[in-house]
Design brief:
The protein is of the alpha+beta class. It has one domain. 45% of the residues lie in helices and 23% in strands. It contains 1 helix and 3 strands. The longest helix has 28 residues. The chain starts with a helix and ends in a 12-residue tail after the last strand.
Amino acid sequence: MTERERLSTTLGILLAGLLQAEEEEAESQRRPRIRSESGVFRVGEEGLGPLDPPFDPGDARL
């Protein structure tokens, strides 16, 4: 395999990865959001999951 073929293959793999990440981000934005008292949740394949964790270990207010 020549250097040019190796570079072409590497660039193809990187481009495919970027396109896949872009598609996943677009799909994530289309999921409906549900508000709750502890934060905003996004409906996913696994059920409900927080967009941002509602609990911050450094913020221990009791």
